[in-house]
Amino acid sequence: PYLLLSxxxxxxxxxxxxxxxxxxHVPPVTLSCVRWIGAMLLLLPFAxxxxxxxxxxxxxxxxxxxxxxxxxxAINNALAYWALQYTEALNALLIQSSGPLFVALWSLxxxxxxxxxxxxxxxxxxxxxxxxxxxxxxxxxxxxxxxxRGDLMFAASLCAFGLYSALMPKRPAGHPLSLIVVGTxxxxxxLLPFAAWEFAAGIRPSADWLTAxxxxxxxxxxxxxxxxxxxxxxxxxxxxxxxxFFHLVPVFxxxxxxxxxxxxxxxxxxxxxxxxxxxxxxxxxx
Length: 286
What we know:
This protein is an all-alpha fold. It has helices at 2-21, 28-60, 62-83, 89-96, 99-111, 117-134, 149-167, 176-200, 209-237, 239-242, 248-260, 267-284. The protein has one domain (2-284). This is Multidrug DMT transporter permease.
């Protein structure tokens, strides 16, 4: 489960970096809608036998599946891409580190599930590691970070995904592929009217290889592979033990900046990585 959750963070880190890179090039709702349509079509041939078998159970729990589709696929994703039109990468990565807090709050509010002391310590240690990386070892810079509407939208997307994570243990019994196909299909349907509005308003993606590459990555890695890994990881260890792996997203994001953007690795990178890993290992223990 820890390998699966680490891969999830890696794919989502690439999604955030790419989403910021193509801001203004691909409309946010269109990107999100195409992402889920592509993921559903890609998975449907493999999921079809399981979907036929599980459909009565999924249909009986349609209200829960509707909420999971909205929070885990439609709302959180569209808000995140939309937020990246306005906020800087520093702010997005900083806010991303609050993901475990939203999961813990929803789990407590809905089901009375409290963090264990070790989970609380682990989340705190890994959060310090994230801040070390993002603030380049200078915690005084935290007071100079300015939040805008993009930051608030990104936080709202994490709040929605925290609800999805907290509800996942209550999901209907069925094959993981059945759940993902229904979730991606439901999310795409919810976003379709808004994507059509974007297109009608003249807010359209550029027809070039960059757009094609972005859409291909968004469909395969942060959608199909990441959600399969994430859902299976939560099924194995539960939401509170899985939540600290959110902190690996900024770690992988900074590593991508070093590899692909030519940023120079510094000592604070190593210190931050070690703190995040230590926090994740601590929180993931039984």
